[in-house]
Design brief:
With about 400 residues, the protein is of the alpha+beta class. The chain has two domains: about 50 residues; about 325 residues, 5 Propeller (Tachylectin-2, Chain A), CATH 2.115.10. The protein has six helices and 24 strands. It has a four-stranded antiparallel beta sheet with strand order 1-2-3-4. A hairpin with a 2-residue loop joins strand 15 and strand 16. Helix 1 runs antiparallel to helix 2. The longest helix is centred in the first third of the chain and has 24 residues. The protein starts with a helix and ends with a helix. The N terminus is likely disordered.
């Protein structure tokens, strides 16, 4: 029970006790009345608590709801193989784009992929989200990585990805990069993770420019700063900076951004009754509240309804890669119930453009039933979004307007 409720209950209990004393003087047959009133209060409080703060999030996935699905007008903004598209608006008035890429020129026995190894991180720049200038490779394993990042991890012969792609001999790929300009420190940070369960790391630009060069911060010079994938960073309105990690973790950074100032701990969330695999964490703020975005797969139930609760069994057919959102008054939580926000647009980030309009990123994930309907997969794209009655959703009209003038 929350502290304020405990205090309120104690005060009412004392008040009723005083009433009881008076009533005792009036007659024994009225003695049960305060007890009945107290029970009624507590029952009513419990009922209100269950309504306002449910124990679990609703796992129903609204597959087929066109108002929540990435609009069909959305198409690639760049013809580059990419997953985990990330876009931000920089202090110089330009937009910057990065993501998980494959090694340029590499020959694959099947489809292009990044499941075993790649060569580093690449960056693009645009003045308008439509015309993109390549800025080249801004971090590489060979030239910039620390010893622990370079070593890699062997892959057993005959290994394959979750999509069935044949893998080479070594895990040494860098995934899910994010570029952040920390306004309060006037510093560029580049965040990414390694495949093969080798953890995540934070890089800082030594030139003060988004293109680097980049070096490891002290907290991950010799080991991963976070022992999982999909690390992100969030700068609060007071200038405090936090690292946000896969599987529901958060840690505050030191003021000089050299390391974490506290151990990672789990967000307080309203989970599903059985938590599925969730990835692609992102944190932002809107109308003064923290917005926690995560990505989860939907699956089809025997009753033809869709849910986010999975069996997590090999060979399970997944349907759509969806963004769910939860809100909180406190950065650590508790976060309220998750709601589906952007269907088929998972592992995204949000950003605001020059005019303050909100956007999300996407990459047309080839996996699952939804992947079979995309004309092209693993390409970067942006999705106009809006907040309607406090909830995030795609902006269908804005998407039509943006893409109707694309490449014109």
């Amino acid at each position: 029970m929350p502290t304020n409720c405990v205090c309120k209950t104690a005060a009412i209990t004392r008040f009723l006790f005083d009433i009881y004393t008076i009533i005792d003087m009036l007659g024994k047959h009225l003695r049960l009345m305060p007890v009945i009133l107290l029970l009624g209060f507590n029952i009513g409080w419990a009922q209100n608590l269950s309504v306002d703060h449910p124990q679990f999030s609703d796992p129903k996935a609204p597959v087929g709801d066109s108002t929540l699905t990435v609009p069909t007008t959305v198409r690639p903004i760049l013809d580059v193989w990419m997953r985990d598209t990330y876009v931000m608006f920089g202090p110089d008035g330009n937009y910057y784009l990065t993501g998980t890429t494959a090694t340029p020129g590499r020959k694959f026995p099947g489809q292009v992929h990044c499941w075993d190894y790649n060569d580093g991180l690449y960056l693009w720049r645009s003045p308008d989200l439509k015309h993109w200038e390549p800025m080249g490779r801004i971090w590489s394993f060979d030239d910039d990585a620390a010893a622990w990042q370079k070593v890699g991890k062997p892959i057993p012969k005959g290994g394959a990805s979750v999509n069935g792609d044949p893998l080479d001999s070594m895990y040494r790929a860098v995934w899910a990069p994010e570029l952040h300009y920390i306004k309060s420190k006037k510093k560029w940070l580049l965040i990414a993770c390694l495949n093969g369960d080798q953890g995540s790391f934070v890089l800082e630009s030594v030139s003060g420019k988004p293109e680097g060069p980049y070096r490891n911060i002290k907290g991950n010079e010799h080991k991963a700063i976070f022992n999982n994938i999909d690390l992100s960073v969030f700068e609060d309105s007071d200038g405090q900076v936090y690292l946000i990690g896969h599987d529901h973790y958060i840690a505050r950074m030191k003021n000089d951004l050299s390391d974490i100032a506290e151990p990672f701990k789990r967000f307080q969330e309203t989970p599903y009754s059985k938590e599925p695999y969730i990835e692609g964490v992102w944190l932002t703020k809107h109308h003064g509240k923290y917005q926690l975005l995560q990505t989860v797969w939907s699956v089809l139930l025997p009753n033809q309804q869709y849910t986010y609760i999975r069996e997590e069994k090999p060979g399970e057919t997944v349907h759509s890669y969806d963004v769910v959102v939860a809100e909180s008054d406190n950065i650590y939580g508790p976060y309220g119930p998750r709601y589906p926000a952007i269907l088929e647009g998972g592992h995204n980030n949000l950003f605001q453009d020059k005019d303050g309009n909100w956007w999300s990123t996407t990459f047309f994930n080839p996996r699952g039933v939804m992947g079979t309907k995309f004309p092209v997969t693993c390409r970067p794209a942006v999705v106009p979004v809006k907040w309607e009655q406090g909830r995030l959703k795609p902006d269908i009209k804005a998407a039509e307007d943006f893409y109707s003038t694309f490449n014109k």
